[in-house]
Amino acid sequence: MSMNIFRLCGDMSHVFSILVLLLRLRVAKNAAGISLRTHELFLLVFITRYTDLFTTYYSLYNSVMKVLYIGSTANIVYAIRATEPICSTYEKSQDTFRHVEFAILPCLVLATMTHFLSGEGSGLDLFRNIQEWLWMFSIYLESIAILPQLIVLQRYREVENLTGNYIFFMGAYRALYILNWIYRAYYEPGYRHHYVVYLCGVLQTALYLDFFYYYIMSKRRGGRFSLPTTTK
């Protein structure tokens, strides 16, 4: 994948979001308002997407970023699950999205249909076939991995400053990657379009739109960031 300003800014936004969350956990030693399930989903995304880490070398930058994403997300999951006093402040009762039934399993089915039934795996050896299938699974899963976190925030309503910044930069990362795809389509000779990736990227960005609106409004007002009460 070629480098351009949109991809670089997207990657840096992603890294910054993770660092902000790690800072929140390690300094405040508090996991209130953080969804463990979202980060377990993101960890699964990175593990299944980067199966080529030890088989194909693209660049030092590419390898470092992959290791950083896996390692930092694993650190977040471990901190919330097993590091005191952080794990004692995690409210499991608020983090109830059924991520196996409504995220992992549907994405496995979609990845199987897209990869095998479309014939994309034909002509590949078994290992390469599995890699491509897992990569497709990770694309689908990443598009909805933030859902448990957004649901937790809606239940808390009051959003802690660092948590709000973390989610904002996560959303900015995906929005910048959409600009990256547009840029590459126009300026990169032989660029291969992948419409499933586009669709999932747009879906992922759309999930953040409501959050973006209230985040920006709170910054303009200079007050505490809170989400509106859901009305029936």
Give a verbal description of the structure.
- The chain has one domain (5-221).
- It is 72% helix and 2% strand.
- It contains 9 helices and 2 strands, in the order H-H-H-H-H-H-H-E-H-H-E.
- The mean pLDDT is 90.
- Keywords: Endoplasmic reticulum, ER-Golgi transport, Membrane, Protein transport, Receptor, Transmembrane, Transmembrane helix, Transport.
Low-confidence stretches: none
Shape: globular
Largest beta-sheet characterization = 2 strands, antiparallel
**What is the terminal-to-terminal distance?**
46 Å
In total, how many domains does the architecture comprise?
1
Beta strands, count: 2
User: Any idea what the radius of gyration is?
Assistant: 18 Å
What is the string of SSEs from the N terminus onward?
HHHHHHHEHHE
Percent range for β-strand residues: under 5%
Please state how the strands of the largest beta sheet are arranged side by side: 1-2
Number of helical segments?
9
Fill in the keyword field for this structure:
232 residues, mainly alpha, 9 helices, transmembrane helix, ER-Golgi transport, transmembrane, receptor, protein transport
Question: Quick summary of this structure?
Answer:
With 232 residues, this protein is mostly helical.
